[in-house]
Amino acid sequence: MIASREIAALILLPVVAMTGCSKSDNQFEALLPAEATSVSYMRESDSSEGVTFQVQSEPGAYRYIEPLREKVIASGYVLCKKSALSEWTPKPVESGKPGNHAFWLTELYTTKDHTKFFVIRVDGTPADGGVSWRQGFRLATQTVGQGKQNIGSINEFCD
Asked: What is the pTM for the complete model shown?
């Protein structure tokens, strides 16, 4: 059964530094914009994968986020609205470090049968004196075997 802490770990999975393991048939390749730099893939197990990458954009832009959302939804996922930060939100101060005008958004998606989860996390940080933003993307998927879900825990995060 998936417990609340395991769902929380799923949300935090993209935060973990991902190691590079280049794989040409990776499911994330179709989600990467052509402008992506610093691309790193991660595979925790047969049921968990992720990717990180960077792009430069206009301040507060959703130009790379919207197409990603559309592709995730077209793949059969639905947004867990209860836990979503779907608009740029000031990033909280972490570990006592002062804020640096950074922003973030994070969304958890699931399939209707709750056997697959997809996480999008994007950090936006001013660059070039605020003229542009460096957006750091972290995408991750998790597959949960049929009948192993804890629907009570899932309902804490999803509608």
From this structure: 0.79
